């Protein structure tokens, strides 16, 4: 994303702008547009280049065709500032995309300046057709020039196409020669085709990486210069600067006299930091033998300039590795092969379906391939999920590469199972796990199953919108320090946090893990990234994923600079003579540094099916554990065997394999579009007169308390990529911009009613979550511009209805405004029978961990429990009793328990439960009431 101006939304006078803000006069005969009232592009909301590029070409086609048909003259086009602004933007954009290039835009500009509208329109149409993927020209083929015939032939080539960035200061004739050589290299037998994007400077290379998601490789030739000569937006310039400054100088870079090598390495590191999926190649002249050894870890290969064909083969070979889907290919081959089934699974190969008089519609609906692909075989190329050695093992290795993990494991029954696998693999009975109180219920169940002692961490509450935020880092550090003070730090095994939360609050995993390891260097971390799998594939969001944080932490701990900084900090944290730690306040104020020998043990679970392409229940476990091969692997495999079906769904596994291919090939493009469309939606709601009267988009100011934000912008991406980048680097918490939480108090109905009766039942719009007074709209990689437009249209209709006095009178009943929602309850406490022992010397320092497992099984025995209706339970609480929950009580969504086994039930909990509007509450029977443990059981 670039900070290029967005859709037209406001009417003001304007000065024409370039790609993102620079002013420039047009070519001869094309003066800048005079100031006049017209729809202006909103300068606040950035648009992705993919959308601006497409819209600019489409607008030019529409505008020039209108002029050509009407016989207009130059004076008419001179008044259309949008035409010249589109041309100026495209002149810069086309530098960073393969296709027509800057000279093509300049030629169109000249034609328009000379009034040759028909010829200009033909050239514009060629560009539009290419972007649309159209293979039929607007005119007959007999009318085409030789160049147009070549362009049409190229567009008719249906092979997958990618783009290769070449960084080199070269002449126009040099660029033409490169493109000519490329066409000669193409072969009809090649599986893929590619085009070159040639830029002259390091800045332009970074701009291309930020704006062009079609790039999958980069060839650096040392002849490039540093600074761009293009007129770019302030946002894009700032983003380029962020990219350069966030790349650390490598200590292993060769020294003078090869200063050009250092420049090459720095650019390579910057591009790899931005887009790790880009394959980097170096094409040099002299001394490539000596360069090869120093550059191997940065570049896939080093070539001499005359080795163009070898480079061509390397590019195609590497893309083939990305394109490879070993398990999906095996499934497809299995479906094509004749077989006799004398095994389980009657549905295999359609045996029990094809020919049936009663369920023939199964085949009609799902298709025969689904049945042909079903099998019970776990040998040969189909492999076994429990002990993979062939295609599944390779598919999981490819996924590990894509997600930046040391190991990756496929899970076919959702992230709930993935979470249980990790807990069982890492934690033993009576070890302490610090866990977000509001994490998904699967973590609570996993803690019960493992017998771990649960120490709940409290997230900050957002009472006005009736949901929780995230757990502040100082709260985590303080609890670790409390365990240290009590002499129990050795019992703390793991920290489990949700990143990002259901409502889009994102942690800084690097900072959390770094500071926690400073207190306990062998901590294990489990990051539940069920809703964050997509984040790996965008340059900014990637930095806050668990795998990237683990990799960065490992790299930093190995540096001399970190070791020196650590030694200096230890002098402030410990008395040099006695070794006594400084007061907790010192530890909380410092940005703690972990010891260089701290162990990096990080696990991430992802619901791939929730935010990327996979069939329902397709999930992954990513592992970045330095102790995995030295003992942890055995425990993990046992846990994996415990929870993984011996009959996994092969279609889910194949979809995970295919989904991995997709994100490696086009993940950046898809995520960029996802975030951009989310900003379109939020801007429409915030600016439409009727919508902003009825709805309110919640920003970081609403979702993150001020003390956890350094940056001032409350919707950073709306101000441009660089603003978002700044917030995601500096703030403790940020908001996932793909999630739009809308406050709906202005409608007069609660969130559940709005979701079911107005959005889903009436208009077929599906949303995942509501609170008492909010509804959460999520964009994903499958969201389209049409879908966003439809949602906006529906919201406008609903806003009109809710603001119509006649409609309000006819409405059956309005719920009370959400402002009456009681405060969100913190975790009360474990009952004394299940809680940690109270220190005799200082009862106020009792630690919060409790025994879920014992309480859980006590609550399953009928003789130990009773059911109590809410009004009776409230009476007992008011009389001073401490009733104890016998099980989990979990409103869904969002899916975290309000009560867990062994928890004391308080008035605050009952107040919250009584005000819930959620229709589905697991563990609570409205006819019988709450299930509580009998007092006699607790007393015994």
Automatic annotation (TrEMBL):
Any Pfam family matching the protein: OKR_DC_1
Single Gene Ontology BP annotation: amino acid metabolic process
Positions of region (Disordered): 1-47
Positions in coiled-coil regions: none
Biased composition (Polar residues): 1-11
Any Gene Ontology CC annotation: cytosol
Domain of life: Bacteria
Sequence ranges assigned to domain Orn/Lys/Arg decarboxylases family 1 pyridoxal-P attachment site in this UniProt record: 325-550, 601-785
Alphabetical list of PANTHER family matching this protein: BIODEGRADATIVE ARGININE DECARBOXYLASE, CONSTITUTIVE ORNITHINE DECARBOXYLASE
Protein name: Arginine decarboxylase
Source lineage: Bacteria, Bacillati, Actinomycetota, Actinomycetes, Micrococcales
